[in-house]
Write a structure and sequence with these properties.
Elements: E1 21-27, E2 37-42, H1 45-56, E3 60-65, E4 83-94, E5 100-116, E6 123-128, H2 139-156, H3 172-182, H4 187-194, H5 199-217
Parallel strand pairs: 1-3
Antiparallel strand pairs: 1-6, 2-5, 3-4, 4-5, 5-6
Helix pairs in contact: 2-5, 3-5, 4-5
């Protein structure tokens, strides 16, 4: 998990312009969420070209999860889920051998409408998911989620690491999305969280998933990554 330590959780950023056609970076084990940060190491030639193009045009990349069976066709264009998250490149470190390290800031969820294959990497025409006018949770829902999370973290022995996220001043959307990123569950389960249409629905799904993990492990919970 990546956060910006110098930024207040309550600070609102102006909307960043997102093109309707963006490069897409599909991965088999990464699900990206708005208002979170994702460090990536770029080494494949096609994605080096993607980053070079993106830094001079738009700054935006669509992260997507590859569907099962991607191994048979990874070097081409294996199927991926239509719903993903647009990230903005906020920092980049170029390495001498042509590789690079970048940091993405999660902006908006999107849905793919059309894919393009005229470059070494994929591009897609996307429709941004409508933003909620109210991203607050019922206090009782938030309290129940934190209770469940606290129980899970105590079982996993990881409560100290996540103590900051129990602060009352952290907005509900940031809380839910960071917990969704950090929970050590399968990529498909995280995709299920990402595809929730509202923050309230994502919070309910997250709470149910943690309850399932508690029951499944019966005292030997996995940690948070």
């Amino acid at each position: 998990m990546q956060t910006e330590p110098d930024r207040s959780y309550s600070e609102q950023e102006p909307a960043f312009p997102i093109p309707d056609r963006i490069p897409v970076f599909p991965l088999p084990n990464v699900v990206f969420f708005p208002k979170t940060y994702l460090p990536l190491h770029i080494f494949e030639p096609r994605y080096r070209e993607m980053i070079a193009d993106t830094t001079v045009r738009g700054q935006c990349i669509g992260m997507a999860l590859l569907k099962e069976g991607w191994e048979q066709n990874y070097d081409a264009n294996p199927p991926m889920f239509d719903v993903g998250c647009v990230g903005r490149i906020v920092s980049m470190q170029r390495l001498p051998d042509g590789r690079s390290n970048i940091l993405l800031q999660g902006l908006r969820r999107y849905e793919i409408r059309e894919q393009f294959y005229d470059k070494p990497y994929r591009e897609a025409r996307v429709t941004l998911k409508e933003e909620e006018s109210d991203t607050s949770l019922d206090p009782a829902v938030r309290a129940e989620l934190l209770r469940t999370v606290g129980e899970y973290l105590r079982m996993a022995g990881d409560a100290v690491t996540w103590r900051e996220f129990f602060r009352l001043d952290i907005p509900d959307e940031i809380l839910v999305n960071h917990l969704s990123v950090g929970l050590e569950c399968t990529p498909l389960e995280k995709q299920f969280l990402l595809e929730a249409e509202t923050l309230r629905q994502r919070a309910r799904r997250l709470n149910d998933l943690i309850q399932f993990l508690l029951h499944e492990h019966g005292g030997t919970a996995r940690g948070w990554g």
